[in-house]
Amino acid sequence: MAKVDFAVGIGGAAGQGIATPGDILALIFARRGLHLNAYNAYQSIIRGGHTFLTIRTSDEPVRSMGDKLDLLIPLNQDTMDRHLNLMRAGSAVLFDGDKIKPGTAAAGVQLGALPIRELMGTSKNPNAANTIALGAALQMLGVDFNTLEDILARQFKKKGDAVIAENVNVARAGYEHAAAHLQPFPFKLPKLDRQLAVLDGNKALAMGGAAAGVKFYCAYPMSPATGVLHWFAGHARQIGAMVRQVEDEIGVINMAIGAAHTGCRAMCATSGGGFALMTEALGAASMMEIPVVCINVQRAGPATGVPTKTEQGDLWQMLGAGQGDYPRLIVAPTSIADCFKTVPELFNLVDKFQCPGIVLSDLLVSEGRASVDPGELDFNVKIDRGETIGLNGDREKKALPLGGYKRYKITDSGISPRALPGTPGLEHVVATDDHMEDGVLISDEFTNPHKRRAMHEKRMRKMDGVLPLIEAPKLSGPASAPVTLVGWGSTAGVIREAVEKLAGEEGVAAGHLQIKWLVPLHADEITRILSASKKVIIVENNYSGQFARYLRGETGFTAHAHIRKYDGEPFMPHHIVDGVKAILAGETNVYVPTHEIMV
Amino acid sequence: MAIETEVKTLTATETRPLTAKDFKGKVDPDWCPGCGDFGVLSALQQALAELGLQPHQVITISGIGCSSNLPGYIGTYGMHTLHGRALAVATGAALGNHELKIIATGGDGDGYGIGGNHFVHTMRRNVDLTYIVMDNQIYGLTTGQCSPTSAKGMKTKSTPFGSVENPINPIPMAIIGGATYVARGFSGNQKHLVELIKGGIQHKGFALIDVFSPCVTYNKDNTYQWFRPRIKTLEEMKHDPTNLHAAIDKGMLWGDEIPIGLFWKRTDLPSLDQLEPVLTEGGSLAHRPLGIPAETAKSLVAELM
């Protein structure tokens, strides 16, 4: 049982400086060895709107933003008005008493009006209220002021000593005000004998790419995938990678393919709209048999959709990306730490099977932040380039006959040794037209149905080899449970938490099956597990039950009920708990929770 | 024509001087008899041989279209990519292994139409590659529609009453767009074309060689017979390819007198690979060892704490 489970909400208009106190709190928690999970609800606006950051911390792993807030820091009236009614007894609200009126709070909510003008002293910093509130909050959590001082010095290092001093002064004013006038929380924030790292999923994907040996990364900026580009751009020289911002996503994927063909591990990331532009080239990578990794960070669609909101609505887009049948791998990481681990694993597979690999992330996992044990960010990963000839000039070692090289040699596995350009004597053409074993086209002067069939079967046969190499999903919890929840990708954490809540608060035992590898799909194993389950509920962040339909298509298994959400915000644990209860009570087979928080 | 001295060190396993025949592809072209593209192919093969390049040192990258079938007919490494995407793929290849000689080939529809965005951006980046456009002012493989370089008024299957649109003029566009070697050749003037291609390959930076390559099947307007009396070399015209304004003026000429030759060349701008610190040492990215040194890994994780 967790000793502490504490969530802070900081809200205001974009531009009011919510990120900084958020970053500082995250660092303080992680440096004390506490786990955290942070989710920022924001809009596609640079100034204005309503941004709301939830940071939840605990001595135990934190898998979602949770269901409740213990501390609210509204930086404007709007945030106060939207969120105060969700505050419960024992929680506190810290706000600028000069500017913001609290309204009516539930009994037992401590309303901490801060006299900001007075506490600012001589400071002219327009965002001083944020730092003052932060100081007050940390005092109420029993954190030493020195801790905050150290972090402020780090945070504002680039801005110079004067800025650091000013922030430290106002933070101290807030800290001292709280000591004198406010009721502390009934516990002190623990300090454990460890330190955790904090990162978002985009960084984890980028770092996973770096670990895998990505030498070429390119992208066109698109929310919520841009964080991957930012990480690579900032670290390109340190890790020795070429990073390019390209004119459009068609250029992105084709450039990555060009670099990959020469032998680089190449990667790119985008969201659904950019991915739509890439689809023809993904088929081309598969036809030319060039390994490349593309990340799709899903956001709420269709079209421009809701650019800053999350959804799992692109599954069918991935499944159907591009004309014709072609081998592709699709994997949806289940957590931020898993983002890091998945990319090197996927690169080994795409190198081995010489086809495109798609990482299906979403805004929730890519822009959400979490604590990770630094030991989990192990860059010493296994690297397997598959049957590649000519790397570092190793042509001689392979002893292939000059002139007799067949790039697309038909083999039992479907894998044909791939010679890199520059290798003497193995010149060949890779083509997006279908071709014979030696690369010569079969589509122009003459066609040959037998050769077409043989080559198409060779390509597609590669998929048979993939399944044994990827981990099958495992059921957690008893198979005999009255309910089995099935999710895919980023929802692993929130579903797991919902399962714990169901057991702890509702007395309902539930199993949980989370799917990570979507293509190829462990259809037999999934069918075996689900056939033995009493009531299968599929939980997914989309309107039409895209995974449920895919599962039915691949296995013939039809889920008993569904919990779906497509309002742009991620599931909170109680949404799933309420859904399970409603479904078990026979009220509905498709439960769509209402997101209570207006962000 | 002045030839630059900069040629990359050859790491050939074969020392015998090669001829154009050594650059023959696995199959013969399936172009229509009389197609202008035959002349471009043989000029390119001749240029590679004369430059002393080995087949494995070169990669020929195309899009889709009649002329984009060229990589299949030449004995170098090759990529026959998607319609319009040759330059994007070629840029990736040029950065992935900057020790390769990159030749991009294609047609006017492929390069100036569907690939127009990549064309513009590849020029401004001054990517070190040679782009040979076989410009026949028509869509051939789709059996004769109007192209981005079709003349105003041209009747095609998609413009049966005559095109009302103005064509693209790739020469001034490339000069303004940042290409550092801009030339135009004529498939009917082999010797001249070989020299232009050699100059383009030796040029460090983005070289465009737009080649009049008549489509004998679908373009009955811009034929060899139409071009021959109009074409005049810039050498005869005493054009100075380092004069920007003269280059643009010459590029705008069209009608009774159409110049071919080297319009524009500058050697004072570094190419993209030269600007990228990541490439300054360690050889081509493609052949560098993978993995992150322990010290670097440690510092990457430390940033998060």
Report the CATH topology name of chain B. Answer: Rossmann fold
Task: Please provide the count of β strands of chain A.
Answer: 24
Radius of gyration of chain B: 20 Å
β-strand percent of chain B reads: 15-25%
Please provide a written account of the structure:
- The complex is a heterodimer of chains A (599) and B (305).
- In chain A, helix 4 crosses helix 6 (161-181), helix 7 (201-212) packs parallel to helix 12 (336-353) and helix 9 (249-262) packs parallel to helix 10 (272-288).
- Chain A is an alpha/beta fold and 599 residues long.
- In chain A, strand 22, helix 18 (546-555) and strand 23 (561-564) form a beta-alpha-beta unit.
- Chain A is built from 19 helices and 24 strands.
- Chain B is an alpha/beta fold and 305 residues long.
- Chain B has one domain: Thiamin diphosphate (ThDP)-binding fold, Pyr/PP domains (Rossmann fold).
- In chain B, helix 1 packs across helix 6.
- Chain B is globular and about 70 Å long.
- The chains are: A alpha/beta (599), B alpha/beta (305).
- The interface between A and B is large, with 77 and 65 residues.
Keywords:
heterodimer, A: 599 residues, alpha/beta, Pyruvate-ferredoxin Oxidoreductase, domain 3, Rossmann fold, 4 domains, eight-stranded mixed sheet, seven-stranded mixed sheet, 19 helices, 24 strands, B: 305 residues, 10 helices, 29% helix, 15% strand, globular
Can you give me a brief rundown of this structure?
The complex is a heterodimer of chains A (599) and B (305). Chain A has 599 residues and is an alpha/beta fold. In chain A, strand 12 (329-331), helix 12 and strand 13 form a beta-alpha-beta unit.
